[in-house]
Amino acid sequence: MRLLSVGVIGYGVVGKRRIKHILQNKKLKLRYVSDVKFKRNFTNKKIVYFKNYSDLIKSRPDITFVTLPNYLASKVTKLCLKNKIHVFCEKPPGRNVSDIKSVIKQENLDKKIKLKYGFNHRYHGSIRKAKKIINDKIFGNILNIRGVYGKSKIVTFEKNEWRSSRKKAGGGILLDQGIHMLDLINLFAGRFDNFKSFISNKFWKYNVEDSAFALMKNKSGVIASIHSTATQWKHKFNIEITFEKATLILSGILSGSKSYGQEKLIILNKKNGKFYKKTFRYYKDNSWKEEIDEFTDIILKNKKVLNGNSFQALEVMNMVKNIYNNDKEWKKKINDKKK
């Protein structure tokens, strides 16, 4: 069987992590890597390195992994699709709804070319267990969801990093990290269309938010709240899903930094008047590997992208937009700075 050739555009932290798991997949062959910080182009027997991503695209790999800043993500994804290259793009899909819509327009020109976005939280053990419980209706219907996802800063590496610029990033912590939790809320309870929110950049004072509080409701009556923040001095991931007959608590999530605590799923309920607690613990993060293996299988067998497809990416970008726009003061602040 012919191996699928792979190119990776963006050799940062995420790009390197993707490469690690690409190399572990026996159906893939890493052929090309590009990054603007490469000081020269050089070739070895296995991999060709480029400074310019357009040179990588001209080489026509079967799959390209796009691990670039937000302001380049949609542009490069469209260029790959136009050149009949399957694309795996990291979240978010761009800076705003317009970016993802422009990608979908290009995607629709050739349905044989596959596009997947990297919402790897869907592949964590606790998330999959929670989704199965929801699907099986073990505890009845969902009543409400509460989520907190926070870290201690926006800028991770450099003082003038693109993440602190609205023009380049499109948004702050909600778009960068909170988007994962919004995607999970969508996964658990379906589409939300009613939003209330408060947004702040009070602490870091960048031109993007460092804290976002949102309350949302869907047509089934499920109410969800989220706090996405870059002022959580001890990193935190927590989702509480309340059902008619029990509560699920997803506490901690395995990550590269190991700073969000042990990943657990806790079930709290009562039987015959007695309180019960059951805890499932997860010790290994296979999400990055499983995402890549699944996408490889989708391409080889011409299957549909069910997790991380462009429709789901558009849905979550619309959620981000609604949260920003429902704080009238924040919306005015953004619009004033555009003038």
Shape: globular
Question: What's the total count of β strands?
Answer: 14
Average predicted confidence as pLDDT: 95
Which oligomerization state do the chains in this entry correspond to?
A: single chain
Helix content: 25-40%
What is the succession of H and E elements?
Answer: EHEEHEHEHEHEHHEEEEEEEHHH
Biggest β-sheet strands, sense, barrel: 8 strands, mixed
Radius of gyration: 20 Å
Describe this structure in words.
The structure is a single chain. By secondary structure, this protein is an alpha/beta fold. The longest helix has 17 residues, at 173-189. Strand 5, helix 4 and strand 6 (115-118) form a beta-alpha-beta unit. Helix content is 34%, strand content 28%. The protein is globular, with a radius of gyration of 20 Å.
Question: How would you briefly describe this protein structure?
Answer:
Helix 4 packs antiparallel against helix 9.
Any chance you could write out the topology, listing elements then pairs?
Blueprint: E1 4-9, H1 13-22, E2 28-34, E3 48-50, H2 53-58, E4 63-66, H3 70-82, E5 86-90, H4 97-107, E6 115-118, H5 125-136, E7 142-150, H6 166-169, H7 173-189, E8 192-200, E9 211-218, E10 223-229, E11 236-243, E12 246-251, E13 263-271, E14 274-282, H8 287-301, H9 310-325, H10 328-338
List keywords for this structure.
339 residues; alpha/beta; eight-stranded mixed sheet; six-stranded parallel sheet; 10 helices; 14 strands; globular
